[in-house]
Hints:
The protein is an alpha+beta fold. The chain contains 16 helices and 23 strands.
Amino acid sequence: xxxxxxxxxxxxxxxxxxxxxxxxxxxxxxxxxxxxxxxxxxxxxxxxxxxxxxxxxxxxxxxxxxxxxxxxxxxxxxxxxxxxxxxxxxxxxxxxxxxxxxxxxxxxxxxxxxxxxxxxxxxxxxxxxxxxxxxxxxxxxxxxxxxxxxxxxxxxxxxxxxxxxxxxxxxxxxxxxxxxxxxxxxxxxxxxxxxxxxxxxxxxxxxxxxxxxxxxxxxxxxxxxxxxxxxxxxxxxxxxxxxxxxxxxxxxxxxxxxxxxxxxxxxxxxxxxxxxxxxxxxxxxxxxxxxxxxxxxxxxxxxxxxxxxxxxxxxxxxxxxxxxxxxxxxxxxxxxxxxxxxxxxxxxxxxxxxxxxxxxxxxxxxxxxxxxxxxxxxxxxxxxxxxxxxxxxxxxxxxxxxxxxxxxxxxxxxxxxxxxxxxxxxxxxxxxxxxxxxxxxxxxxxxxxxxxxxxxxxxxxxxxxxxxxxxxxxxxxxxxxxxxxxxxxxxxxxxxxxxxxxxxxxxxxx
Length: 510
């Protein structure tokens, strides 16, 4: 069958990843993308740069495959989800920089809608909350303030998440490109009715979004179209015409890549933020306090006879996790590289009473407080950079516990295991702390590139590289496992200090 290739268009860069028939990663290529901060609280990307990075990484891994005589059976796409791309379908021009999921410019729009009494309908239809995190109000803002070259009535105006922008370009662009998305991404826009998996006319009207500007919603697993790539040199020989057969938002892709196919299984991705998803099963749960409900995936005809095609997920998100390590490096100069954080934090036995709440862009789940700001408490004359590093790592574990505690209270299934991925999952200290705080086994897989792995294996499943999701789950292997060992009274006492600090961070900004 050959290989499956994933395109992983993340918040800080783009990765192409090659997976073999044993679901093992055999090659990768990566390009960083530029972060733009035009005003405080605003975060933007260049859609053209994202596409150029996709082409560059595909050319790199495809060239090596061609040289080795390999073949590619399927291409999958995964992406930062809520980020908005607006473009002109007649010529492919982006009409504005992409507005990134971290961007907070629409806080006033969200507040006005909530004040107008619209939150209950949004929660019931979408499982989300009225927050700038999600895509809908970004479209509202662009139509009001973005100086778009096309009117909202134009048939060429397109609004989509990054997956739909890449899919359109990957399948031909202006020469018949497919403008489509999948339910995992669409469910994060605040425009999808997650019961029907269709765009909601009521929600589009609420946010003033013309429904014709949105992509078609198709199952996550299925043929979206053949790849029609620009001249990629030797890579074109193995990639041109290969079916694009899977699309998943990055966090759902990590859930799939971690083989969390049974209800009650949980994954955490430690990336720019920390993202926790629990498989909630085939029945859409009511949106619980502090959490959101997303579509995990729609496997369509590829779910197999033993499973329902659609699975839902309970989800929690912290906005700043790995980004706090970057701040210690770039903002404070406490470390020279992100890799130093683990050894520095482990050089002391505890944080010396220091607690760091990294609410640098507000608090996400389960607090949802855009007015919160980062604070460091408990500083004494004996506090040094090792204690601050330890407090940063502890904050990552505490933030995830906030979410797993809320999921445990809301889930119809007992939480059974936590699987960790993302860059910070390489830290044994973090995973030991996480096992203690979340009170369940924490496992790190043999490959922590679970997001790209999920997209590749989903596409390969569609093309018959694997016979079922259960066959894929049987290929998952743990590289390390950490079990809770300390008395719960001790971990709860430490956690109580975190909760006090969180209380002081909330509502800080006017």
